[in-house]
Amino acid sequence: MSAIHRLSETIEARKGADPESSWTSKLLARGPEKCAEKFGEEAVEAIIEAVKGDSERLASEAADVLYHLLVMCAARDVTLKDIELELARREGTSGIAEKAARGQ
């Protein structure tokens, strides 16, 4: 099992836990909006590191982004499996064609 799958399982397991027992539980208890806000903060930090060109810091911030993305999704009952199914659905379709199909 990959690290991202283990992380996803841990996040799911923390959904009903005491908010004082883990950061994940605390974030989830604060609601989807707070989870989304935290994801946005982490995404900005990753962008800053990408612009700076520091690969090690970018990898660290990217890990934070992935974690907070999964927490945000879990707060709205979207699982890693749901995301994987959507990626599989899009596989083999160009980004341009996929975006056109969504009317964007």
Task: Give a concise summary.
It is built from six helices and no strands. The protein has 104 residues and is mainly alpha-helical. It is globular.
Describe this structure in words.
The protein has 104 residues and is an all-alpha fold. Helix content is 76%, strand content 0%. It is built from six helices and no strands. It has helices spanning 3-14, 23-29, 32-52, 55-75, 80-90, 95-101. Helix 1 packs across helix 4 (55-75). The longest helix is centred in the middle third of the chain and has 21 residues, at 32-52. It is globular. The model has no long low-confidence stretch (mean pLDDT 94).
Number of strands: 0
**What gyration radius follows from the Cα positions, in whole Å?**
16 Å
Give the termini separation: 35 Å
Task: Name the average pLDDT.
Answer: 94
Outline the low-pLDDT stretches. Answer: none
Instruction: Give the CA-based shape.
Output: globular
Helix/strand order: HHHHHH
The total count of helices amounts to 6
Tell me about the biggest sheet?
Answer: none
Oligomer: single chain
Give the strand content.
under 5%
**In terms of structural class, how would the helical and strand content be classed?**
mainly alpha
- What proportion of the residues is helical, as a percent range? over 70%
Strand-helix topology:
Blueprint: H1 3-14, H2 23-29, H3 32-52, H4 55-75, H5 80-90, H6 95-101
Q: What keyword list fits this structure?
A:
about 100 residues; mainly alpha; globular
